[in-house]
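Sample entry was shown:

___
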Amino acid sequence: MVDRLHDVTGAVLAGGLGTRLGRDKTMLTLGGRPVIERVVTALSEACGQVVVVARAKTFELSSFPVITDIYPGRGPLGGIHAALSHAETPLVFVSACDMPFAAAGLVRLARSVWAGEDAVIPFVDGRSEPLQGLYHRRVAAKAEEALAAGELAVHRFLSRLEIRWLSRSEVATVEDPAMLFFNINTPADYRRAEEIVREMAAAAGTEGTRGRL
C-alpha cells in the first residue's frame, strides 16, 4: 500500500448547481453510494487530508471538513480559490464532485512529476482537465486576481499559470482517461454513469467467482 501524500490536500468541489442536470449534484447516488462520497474516498486514499468545498455552510459530510467559498457564486474557480486559500499543505489536488470515477493513482502521478510548477494538469484529446489537477497553494493569489477581474472561466485562468501538463499516455498508466474525466452534466450522463457502475459491479462479481473456482 502506498503511503498517503501528507503534503497534498484533496479538495472536492461541491458547488455545482446542476442546472443542465436538473438537480443538485451533491445529492446524486451511484450503486447506492453518493457520488461525492466516491470522489472523497478516492482522494482520501492518496491525500493526507481531504476537504469539501461547498457553496454554503448548510452542506455537511460526515468525517470530512467542509469549507465554503470566499467568493460565492463564482463557479469552479471560486471553489479552487477557496480550497487553496484554506490549505494547510503546499499542494492541493482538486476534483469536481460530478466526476465519479476519480482515482487515487492520478493524485500520486501528478505529485510524482511535480517539479515546482504552479500546477500539474492533465491534457487529453486536445482538452485540459483543470478539475482533476494538482495546484500549489500560491496559486490562490492568482485566482484572487482573476476573480477580482471578473475572469471566471477556469480554462482561461490556466493561462496565468506555469503548468506541467500530463499527457494521455501518462494518464493512461493510471486509468482509462475516458473514465477518469467522465463527468455528470446531463440526465443522459447520469444514466450512462449508472450503466458503467453496473458493468463494473458485474465484472467484479465475475472476477470474484473465477477466483473461487
The first helix runs from residue 35 to 44. The first strand starts at residue 5 and ends at 13. The CA atoms of residues 31 and 197 lie 6 Å apart. Residues 5-212 form a domain with the Spore Coat Polysaccharide Biosynthesis Protein SpsA; Chain A fold (CATH 3.90.550.10).
